[in-house]
Amino acid sequence: MNKTSDVIAVGLIVADFVGAPISQFPAAGALVTTNSITPSIGGCSANTSADLAKLGVSVSLVGRVGDDFFGDFVCRSLEQAGVNCQHVVRSSTQQTAATLVVNVEGEDRRFIHAVGANTELTGAEVNDELLRQAKVICVGGFGLNPALSGEHVRDRFRHARDHDVITMLDVVLDDPQDCLEMAELALPETDFFMPNADEARLMTGLEDVQDQADFFLERGAKNVVITCGSAGVLLKSSDGTTLERPAFEVTQVDGTGGGDAFVAGFIYGLLKQVSLSDCLRYGSAMGASCVRAAGATTGVFDAAELETFVATEKG
């Protein structure tokens, strides 16, 4: 029997393997040791789902993993976190997507990624029965998987709006022009388009974040939310609303998953039916909580911690 969920998260699911920092990258044929190699969940939609579940939000994850050990690990971890994985399909031909995250002291992270079963996700897995149960559908990692096409997302979003479900689109860039062409098909059915400033710049060719937002509004998005890291966040709406807020000041340990946590906090605010300004505040707080610890979901707030933080912290 299917469980009802307030949020449907659709998109990338990854098994991450994160090495503690090493002193130097090894030469060919050489070996270096690290204090730990830690498995964790990864991928935009898996991260956002886990964060929402920690906030007490009912969430169903729609995606694909392999019929393998990595898939067992990811699904078990997500289910233990409180995510409904009934709609995660096991591939018989592709392995679970996986990433080796190599951390070298004083250098940016290195990633070795196997795309795996994510390439088989089309979006058709989101049926009308699932949409009738939901209040929000969020597609994460859009642009990386051609099978999850602009046409498919447009179709699912159109059905979602027929059921009064809020539609949200978050991107990951491989080829910015390809992603833009895909997004242009889906944006007219998108209530909240949520790139970061670097993604928006690469997609639009524009440096100013206000101009970037206008670019996506002109292509049909109802609201555009652009996260700008330590510079804060901008929201612009088709009705002329413009909102900006600064980032919360925290010590950043690891930026992995910060954008996914922002999306979770923003959705939390939407479900509480607070103002868009307060949604930005919740999103910013969740993003800030995430980057304080290593790992995409390790340090995020639960609902009580989030409410305390937004009530007491300046920003």
Low-pLDDT residue spans: none
| Largest sheet descriptor | 9 strands, mixed
CATH class: Alpha Beta
| Full CATH superfamily name | Ribokinase
Secondary structure topology:
Blueprint: E1 7-11, E2 14-19, E3 37-42, H1 44-54, E4 59-66, H2 69-81, E5 84-91, E6 98-102, E7 110-114, H3 128-133, E8 136-142, H4 150-162, E9 166-171, H5 176-186, E10 192-193, H6 197-204, H7 209-218, E11 223-227, E12 233-237, E13 242-245, H8 258-272, H9 276-290, H10 303-312
Parallel strand pairs: 1-4, 1-8, 2-6, 4-5, 8-9, 9-10, 10-11
Antiparallel strand pairs: 2-3, 6-7, 11-12, 12-13
Task: Characterize the structure shown.
This protein is 36% helix and 23% strand. By secondary structure, it is of the alpha/beta class. It has a single domain (7-24, 36-312), classed as UDP-N-acetylmuramoyl-L-alanine:D-glutamate ligase. Strand 6 (98-102) and strand 7 (110-114) form a beta hairpin. The model has no long low-confidence stretch (mean pLDDT 93).
